[in-house]
Amino acid sequence: MTTILVTTTEHIPGQDYEVLGEVFGLTTQSKNVLRNIGASLKNVVGGEIRDYTKMLDEARRIAVDRLRQNAADMGADAVVMMRFDSGSIGTDMQSVAAYGTAVKYK
Questions:
Q1: CB 71 within 8 A of CB 98
Q2: Which of 32, 87, 97, 105 lies at a 20 to 30 A Cα distance from 79?
C-alpha cells in the first residue's frame, strides 16, 4: 500500500481532487484481567491509568491504519476531514472509529 495522506482539514493545499466517498477504520480493544485490577486500584487513588492510555493510543493507530487501507482499496490518494469517535463497551472495552472522505488527485 502506498502512503495515504490523512488530514483533518477540508482541503489539501495545492491539490485538486475528486471525492470518492466515505471511509472508515474500526477497532475494539480490551485489556486483560490483571491490568483491569491494576486500573481499578488506580481509580481509588486517582491519576492517569497508563495502561488504558496505551490501549487508546494503540486503538487510534489501528483505526487510522484500517482507514488508510479502506481508502487504498478504493483507489484514493488521500483522506480529508478525518475524525475520531470512541466509546466504551462495558467496563473494560473501548471502541474507536476513524472516519473521513477518500479523495483522488486529478
A1: no
A2: 87
